Amino acid sequence: MNFGKESLKKHRKLAGKIEIKSKAKIEDAEDLAIFYTPGIAAVSSEIAKNECKIWEYTSRSNFVAVVTDGSAVLGLGNIGPEAAQPVMAGKAILFKEFAGVDAIPICLDTQDTDEIVKAVKYLAPSFGGINLEDISAPRCFEIEKKLQNLGIPVMHDDQHGTAVVVLAGLINAAKVIGKKLENCMIVINGVGAAGHAVALAIDEFTKGKANIITLDSKGAVCRNRKDLDEYKEDLNHIINEGNICGDLDKIICGADVFIGLSVGNVLKATMVKKMANNPIIFALANPVPEIDPVEAKKAGAKIVATGRSDYPNQVNNVLAFPGIFRGALDAKAIKITPGMLNAAAMSLASYVESPAIDKILPNPIDKKVAKAVAEAVRKEAIKEGSIRPACK
Question: Is residue 36 annotated as part of the catalytic site, yes or no?
């Protein structure tokens, strides 16, 4: 099947793929009086007296805004807010289908960091959570950071959703080959939104014991370089303790794990052969992975994961973000913490009862996964106390 042609056909036929449905039925004058005027004035008055009541009397507690500026959409790049809309609507469908969350696409016609922050702050009273999506690095880091005090969960999925699924898959992959992550040398190619978050997530999980080296298009992120932005500089204080510099061909020598969040075909078979015994490869560039899985296996890779559905071990964010937000909303969380993300990754990993070479992650269309992740996140939020106080 030509999925592109079929998608165009279906989207034109349906004129998009989401709609708003009413929970209440308006069948007579009494219904109108209850759900609109004059009855609705009583509800508004209650909220005016106590803003906390908005969570009881409105749908806010189940609304998530999917916010983008269209600057880094899929593998299409900076295509703008209009072209990003179908992707954000697709995200909204996944929220609803997998976690029962009502999500609304918000495509902003600005790529100015402060303007985006300002716009989201203005929109926040309508939503229970904010899912930042497809915003290019390094602006995405600053935007997410500046929105952490809204009193509702805010998460950039390209960073943390990816990190949760990668970490879960890595936990199980290490288990299958009989290695401990804290003893592994891990090479991450690509230090954009996802690569940065994956590095921090692995470092957090291993308590700083794993030997993690990240690379961008100019080589390893090391302290000798003078061209690093502040976020890559921050990584220098946390990982690559040996201050190893060089290109991928050099850095890959002896590595136990390669994680690609970059571009297709950058990892060669000759490089795989330089890795440690039974190497793990996550080639996540889409649609063309950093190395073809068949080629990687021939070169000695033990476990290979990609972002594609036509190979085993698909790393798909749908395994994470619906459950993370469902759990955060259910807990009445005021933010999404590293502990909540770690709980999500652990839950996702343990969902696979018997990990195997071609089974390190759950099936992305298994809708029970979101429930398991949500419960783990909910419990962690309550344990940490990162929740709203009850209304008085």
Answer: yes
